[in-house]
Hints:
single chain, mainly beta, Neuraminidase, 4-stranded antiparallel β-sheet, 27 strands, 7% helix, disordered N terminus
Amino acid sequence: MAIFVLMRSFYSSIVLGGLVLGCIGCGQKEVQENCTRFKESSSLSSFLPDVSSVRLIPIYDDHLLGSRVELISAKGSFILSDMSNDVIYRYDDKGFFLNEIGRKGNGPGEFSHVSNVQLIDPSKVAVVSPFKGIYYYDLAGEFLCKEDMDNLGLQTVINAGSILTYYGYLSTEKYRLCAMDSSSEPHYYLPNKFSVIPYSTTIPQLSVYDGKVFIIDSYNNVLYSYGSGELNEYEVFDFGKYRVPDDYFNATDPYQGAELLLGSEFAFIQRYLMSDYCSIIEVAIQKHSGLTFTYGLKKGDQWIWFGEGGKQDEKVFEETIRDLVGNKLYTLIDPDRFDGAKALYYDFLSNKAEVESIDKERLNYVIGEITLH
């Protein structure tokens, strides 16, 4: 079977092959009147009026970062996790290197592979290593303790004393989601019912806000939330003509289903973040011509949809929104698109002098801090 790769510049791909994720029920949930209507967009015009100011913060190549990097804003600093090389670096508010957090290895306090990194409180970092456990460090990178666990899934988060782990459609698991609490038996959710084509992702499927965990479940058009021991449908999206066909899930031969999917154009939720100010969603659209992205920004009950822009130098969101804290969005910008980002946001820049003095020859990444009105 042909390998299907959803390419994106300077970012890891989603690859059909290896691990299995999929959807609930009989494919995607049927669209109802209360569904959120997705609006495809290729323009930033509806987003820019919400921008109050922008800081562009250089990360230089003194400590090289690979092609899959996640970002967490942490107590006036930034944690950048290189998921392709299993290294975690911390930088100050100006982008200067501070320290490494943990390190790869087999010794005490060393992790073997990182599936995700989470800021537990303002000064405590959790590093999840599947089949090994959860490692805890302080912001200075010192090892605190380890919680041994051999039943972790593809991605895991800690929330309100519970551990929520996502298995996806692993053939060895009967359920896709498990909540574990030291005081009770594990609780399982989202039963595996379909033999869908193997699918793997390196993009976070779980995010935490205000006592809830939000779960992206592969090609499902439902965003789930988990809190207080309950799993609920938080929001259902109407992708219209980009809806994943039910035949993909109903196919008796998963490879035939995959061929059907690859022959169609479809959309799926790729990333979701929430704060006390707004929420933002990234929707990936696989077209015959390639992969595109549309973003939804929700303030109150109002959704604003915007895209990457039609011009190459406007694609500053191609590296996606990495973190959301209050009214501040954080993204990572490919150095090759630094000039485009600088031009696009020049009128909003709060650090023009620093931006003008950036050494472009040494750039590894650029952190974009976008403050909203």
